[in-house]
Amino acid sequence: MNYTKLVACLFGAVLLGAACRPGNVTGEADGGVWVTSTSGEEWAQQAIIYEDKISKKTIGDLNVKKFIFSPADPRKIFLISSKSGLWFSWNQGYLWDLILPNNGVSDLAIHPNNPKLLYAAVGSSVAVSTDEGVHWRSTYTSDSTSTLITTLAINPNTPNTVYAATSNGDILISEDSGVSWRVHTALGSGTILEKMQFHPSRPSTLYAIAQGKGLMRSEDAGENWEFFADSFSSFSGTNDPRDFALIPSGIVYASKYGLLRSLNQGKDWTSLPLISGPRDANIYALAVNPQNPLEIFYGTTSTLYHSLDGGFNWIPRPLPSTRRASALVFYPEDQKLLFMGVSLSRN
User: Fold this and answer.
1) Which of 175, 199, 222 is the last residue of a domain?
2) So what's the pLDDT on residue 54?
3) Is residue 240 located within the same domain as residue 198?
4) pLDDT recorded at residue 80
5) What are the tens digits of pLDDT across the range 148-193?
6) Can you give the pTM of this predicted structure?
7) Host domain of residue 213
8) Given phi > 0 = left and psi -120 to 50 = alpha, else beta, which region is 150?
9) Contact in structure between 46 and 14 (CB atoms under 8 Å)
10) CB 262 within 8 A of CB 271
11) Residue 21 lies in a domain
């Protein structure tokens, strides 16, 4: 499919509800955001830039890292790209605006009770917006520009408490919505967190993944941490983390090994059988249906895998893009809709 046909297919998807079948899209315009309501059988690329909707410019060359939905209105979607800034859609992804044009954006956290209050990890700083991303100001900056803010989290018990992990192994905390900061935990140099998230049913339990070290957990809101190295001793490759998804009774963890699931908050683990086999799984994105934990999707460099029975049987379908899957998330108000971001390389 050439670029002209791709744009035509895109506009058909947006205006007429048409869909593109995967497997025949080539060129740099097949990046950005894809959405399916048929578990990956058909896809629509949602990539039109609002300011350029007449000239038909798109975010089709964007490499996606993460989606974040507004807790007040899930039609409002924030997209973190790899080296292309923070993007925003107010209409379920049909049109996009660049709201933070900085190539160092690595994460975003939204206040659950005040969705206009945003925190962004931007290079060596934490930026804050009080008007849903229209204006930004720095609320914390590291002493060294080489010390980056890698991921953010908000405590659901006390949502004015914000956590920021740094590339030198510290977890910073602000208990006054970002006005003042202190070191909450010193994990040590070499422990670089890539993702940090509170468990929704255990609000003092915080999970994270660290580069080269794998999955870790804190049960006291981030003061003390434990790695799962001993629990994973028989699973080679778990120290190369890819993603995790929290479920009501535990967690599903994706790594180079494959997929592991715990139904008792990490006490016991089960290896989920993959078609490709364990120990060298090319998993780069993971999503578990929050309403039905038996439904799992994971994406590789070329394929989307779908399970309806908790990971024991899988349906493989080709990706609609020549890029690898880099982000998967269910639409909060309709779990039939699956959003996928794609990327040329691992983010």
Assistant:
1) 222
2) 58
3) no
4) 97
5) 999 999 999 999 999 999 999 999 999 999 999 999 999 999 999 9
6) 0.90
7) 103-222
8) alpha
9) yes
10) no
11) no
Percent of the chain with pLDDT over 70: 90
Residues forming a β-bridge with 195: 209
Q: Which of 173, 191, 222 is the endpoint of a domain?
A: 222
Mean pLDDT of the chain: 89
Q: Which residues pair with 183 in a beta bridge?
A: 172
Do β-strands 182-186 and 170-174 pair in parallel, antiparallel, or remain unpaired?
antiparallel
Residue 37 and residue 126: Cα distance in Å, rounded? 36
The yes-or-no verdict on residue 308 having pLDDT over 90 is yes
- For 156-167, b/e burial (b = at least 16 CB within 10 A) is eeebbbbbbbbb
Q: Which amino acid is present at 298?
A: Y
Q: Which amino acid is at 224?
A: N
Q: Which CATH number fits the domain that encloses residue 256?
A: 2.130.10.10
Structure token digits, residue 188: 């040590």
Is-contact 95 87, C-beta < 8 A? no
